[in-house]
């Protein structure tokens, strides 16, 4: 007995070494389109079959093809994660009829081979996954048969797997088999509803996550045997909840959300939202070209891009106050409100991780707003406001009380009066970027308002196109109030700092102040005499609670 144990020791030791050669906690990375994501595909369901300690990062994004995922830089970001295994699935958005995304079959082959080569070059192991089948059932006479438009793409992936000696997860045929077994009616249970009342035959809801995640796990166990010890036989959670369910609406241009446009999601918001129960809208990464209006009767609406995706979730438009009113033959043009990319009239509005853009060019020399906000207690966090003239109108209702707005860690760009109007607004740790000679602010603060625009700990930069320099502000109305507190004034700031808009009488009423700014633009030796440096005691009043608090003691910085 002792001898037999001794003979087995080398084998046992070899097995231990072989197991130890594998990372104790393998890192898996999912790469693909919406049918791989956690909220509309099998990603979250697959996650339930992973053993403790396995690290999974899902980089899949809705609406992406094998080409666009690379072109937009998402593939480079996925590789930077330095995973051990990359599960790669594309095909849905490579099909014809998808501008900017479609690929020919030959292009598709090239891109899929590139994923393999670059994964290996990064020291990781690629695993190809054939696309989740579209539930394209035939006529009512054959309700259990699917004619898959992805069949050719799936065969290309199989051929590449053989050619490159890459493990293959056969999701297409197995998902097709499952769906045909259930039939069209049986598949409705995991098919998300569309805006028009029909059912989505491509994406998955919570009922489908684990069903199809199980197929991937079973196939992976066979295709990559060394991962078998890290795959569970049964899911950790049989009905996992996607993070997106924390939102009342999900906007996704590829149809994987509840709405395909931001305005449609806003329209779906109730008028009864409260601070305790706001209406939350998640906007998936993508470019949404539309005019969005949040009307006054829809308070407590929250508009969020995906975390860290502010630069990749863009609401954009190219209209301005010279744009003709559609369908009007009289030559009438759009108002500032109607031409703004986004108009916010509701109170208690919140936006996070979004880019608001107006693409009207500098040469047009016209008001072109990215955002026009008149709502009280509006909050913008980690947002970008891109434009040229009048980019951000932080205003108050014409016949109402002064509205308060809070901008934290935002970026605002432009060159003429690109932050302007009559709101009381705090810009907290923001980046203000001047794209050409001009004026940063044009406040029209009301005489009775103690504060107008206040920039706290911001950074002001200027583009190479700035020649003579930029002014910190000029008064759109006589009692304009603007203050720069502890800001880093980089680039070319005009030595005089402030402009009177050609009216010397404004010098008696405008309230312009600075305090302990730094950088080359902070030199006050040549500043206009009617703008002042605050004392330490005066500067102590410039806090978010004191500026924005009001009678309701609002403090958005909490």
Describe the structure.
- There is one protein chain.
- The chain is α/β, with parallel strands linked by helices.
- It folds into 2 domains: 16-243, Rossmann fold (3-Layer(aba) Sandwich), CATH 3.40.50.1110; 245-548, Pectate Lyase C-like (3 Solenoid), CATH 2.160.20.
- The protein contains 12 helices and 29 strands.
- Helix 5 (105-121) packs parallel to helix 6.
- The radius of gyration is 28 Å and the shape is elongated.
- Mean pLDDT is 93; it is low at 1-23.
Task: Summarize the entry for a quick read.
The chain is α/β, with parallel strands linked by helices.
Question: What characteristics describe this protein?
Answer:
558 residues, Rossmann fold, Pectate Lyase C-like, 2 domains, eleven-stranded parallel beta sheet, 12 helices, elongated
Task: Output the CATH homologous superfamily of the largest domain.
Answer: Single-stranded right-handed beta-helix, Pectin lyase-like
Number of domains: 2
Rg, Cα atoms, Å: 28 Å
Number of helices: 12
CATH class of the largest domain: Mainly Beta
| Secondary structural class | alpha/beta
SS strand fraction: 15-25%
Q: Calculate the terminal CA-CA distance, rounded to whole Å.
A: 71 Å
How many strand segments?
29
Task: Return the average pLDDT rounded to an integer.
Answer: 93
Uncertain segments: 1-23
As for the CATH topology of the largest domain, it is Pectate Lyase C-like
